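Fold Annotation — chain and its backbone

Encoding — discrete vocabulary of local shapes
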Amino acid sequence: MRSQLFLLGILAFHIPCSAAFAQAPAPKPAAKPLAKSAPTQDSVPSPVSKHYPILIIAHGNEPSWSLRLGMKGPERLDRLNYPPIVLEPGEITPDDTGNSWTYNARDTATGATVVVKLTRDVCSDGMSDARYTFRAEVNHAQIGPLKGCGQSSPDKFPEFRKKNQLDMPDDTDTKDKDKEKDKKTVLDPITNFHSPVATAYLDTGGHVIVSHGEARKAAGIGAEPALSHDGKKLLYTRSDSKSGPERSIVLYDLDTGRSRDIAGNNVRQAFWSPDDSRIAYLKFDGKLWQVWTAPASAPEKAAALSAQNVDALHGWVNASTVLASDTQNLYWLSEDKPAQTVPLKEIYGDSFQIMSSDTIRVCPVNPDLLLVSAYYLNTPAGAPTDSMGINQTFFLYELKSRRRVILGPADAFTRDAEWSRDGLQVFFTRGVPAKGALVTDRMFWDGTGEKRYSPGISLVVGK
């Protein structure tokens, strides 16, 4: 017995030493114990797996946002009351621990960089008792940082179950088509929109046509139509002189079919307040154009809202504030607070020229989001032009992030873009003036679903 224990002790003592002797030249069979020996503290660690999490839905609050992280990486960023942002996935790198991954992407509309960091760690969104698998940090170069949680959600990615084109042949045309297909795939169809019940537009003869359901009425010859939110009353501008600037604002009642002037001399661009109780319009005093307001039921009680000289009125922001502009600035003119100003150059950037005929509309569900119709400084290649050789389009602009996205079709001449009441649709005049028929088209705020909507131009939505 003692001899057996002694023999085991010798073997135990010599096992670690076998590694040292393995360093010297020896027959190949003698090297096998080295492969089985346990690694020492100075050994090189095993490579970290480069597999990264996919099919993740990340989200956060204050502000509310969500991110789709698909087969190739980040593919779409959503924020409450903003159109979705399509992302182009880029390089993905893991950290040394294998518990955190950095996903790089690009905003396809603006080119801004987007970095997403996903960490495998228990996470709470602070709004419920739910616990999530990942902590998520999104940093958009224009929008800024967003923090929240993530969870594997393959059931939210049905398009990837049928998609077999991820590894396509190295063909440029095929890749370009695939990218466009991918972009359409990640944008869910908009189905919760509400088609307008009441609209107004100008026909080819200059008549203001009011449409309510299936009924259509001609209110008179004029321009700058504005429908009340209930769709029952119309304001428009009538020219009172063939050679002079004299103009009046007319109120047309759809129920009675009667019209009456509510402001005269030199006035234009009337708009209804959000609750239809007041109107705002521009009035010229011989030197300056200023914003005036009046009770809708007593237009004779009109008074100047601000002494600011402006060139254009763009509508109401809320019950006490209107949006107006000159050739330099955009103004928020209010009854109960000092005027706020943003330089138009900041909004237009280097791609568009500032003109008094431009229209700027505040999104009805998000005052931070503007819809701007303007002329290009340099007409894009292949785009149609008017008699001056320039092209007009429309774009979205976010005041806080300064993010600008061209929404108008690249192959068209478009103007007078207007929001629907639900903020999901944009109506615009399509066609080159004096070069063919002009019509009204509609598209969704994410740039999808363009279709012919009605004849005529300068369409506005009431109800």
Residues 197 and 213 are 5 Å apart (CA to CA). Helices lie at 2-14, 17-21, 32-36, 159-162, 172-186, 344-348.
